[in-house]
């Protein structure tokens, strides 16, 4: 088996992970005590990817839960999936990192790091053939950004040839009042870009907008956002969890999706999106409507106003009894209509996979990962907020007080700017090529807007 060790870091990471485990336990017919109650082989076949089989055929999530304060870990233990977890792999500190990257990276978090690494090592040793690590965290929090990036740095040293993938939540002032988040986020990204292989970025701002405008939730909260994130994570991991052909492990995703080593930031999408108030049972869902929604800006999970966005690569994973011909036609239609959006110097840059097993409650769904220049809009938003504070050295004493130096901030900012430049330069390759495209090829019937 190609097992994955899952790391859930900080409050945000553990809250999202709770939902994620709830969904995948349900999909794989694992009850609250960890026992398999299904009657078919399909959900059982690859259970070992995310679960460790313990005594009495009990399936235990192969995860390490970490937070520098105890509250969230206690909540996780008391949640509906709490009994699934092995308490020995739940680690908490006392006081938290106080929204401060440096506490997570250099002081409080560093003190607890040996313990975290030891737990990761034990989990890895219990695997037949470890494929890599996945971490879910927020890059706005002190623990999520500081300790999360430190953990990835240490794991990269210890497991050079394993794949490291993160699900990283980007902060937004629409849902959080913490002023130091742009510092933490820029510092976090500047570390993670060197230690991870692929980063799937969830922008809280976009998720908030989707919830408010498209799903019509009057006042979206973290729970609403986590509903969307966890469903998408379950979608992304479908190919690992069930037998299939494409992107069946972390390394294949990496190879297919990253044309250059530093261009490894993926924006996710999921369709059909729902909420507690927006019930899908009454809607007709077709392959065409799913594809339209996946690529429509109102439903993408990264907030951006990118006029000349270029999609370098993308992977779409369909679930349910969908016809591969219909999927192929819908994708071809889309590429024809939105020709300008796809980078021409990478032919066949859309990969699709189909998994017969639908998510529970609906007939079909799709998840998209896209490596797109639009990520730079988010990075620039963070840099702008970072610059405003850094210009006046606001809140710097919290960081220098823990031993950090101003130079580290400058370096981090430059690294994030360099990533933006690299995306920009890569997209210029298309301008160098002859443009033989003819927009009129797109027939009038082809409507790539969502019909939600
Ligand atoms: N989507 C989502 N975002 C969250 C959630 N909880 C916190 N956040 C966001 O994450 C950022 C704060 O990170 P936390 O995870 O609370 O912080 P932490 O990693 O525990 O670090 P410290 O509390 O500073 O030690 C803010 O931008 C929040 O909006 C959540 O459940 N879902
Ligand atoms: Mg916290």
Description:
- The protein has 452 residues and is α/β, with parallel strands linked by helices.
- The chain is 43% helix and 17% strand.
- It is built from 16 helices and 12 strands.
- Helix 7 crosses helix 14, helix 8 packs across helix 9 and helix 14 runs antiparallel to helix 16.
- The structure holds guanosine-5'-triphosphate (GTP) and magnesium ion.
- The site of magnesium ion has 7 residues, from helix 1.
Task: State the helix count.
Answer: 16
CATH architecture of the domain at 2-265: 3-Layer(aba) Sandwich
- Rg over CA atoms: 21 Å
Average per-residue pLDDT, rounded, comes to 90
Please identify which CATH superfamily of the domain at 2-265 we are dealing with: Tubulin/FtsZ, GTPase domain
GO cellular component, one term: microtubule
Cofactor: Mg(2+)
Protein name: Tubulin beta chain
Family: Belongs to the tubulin family.
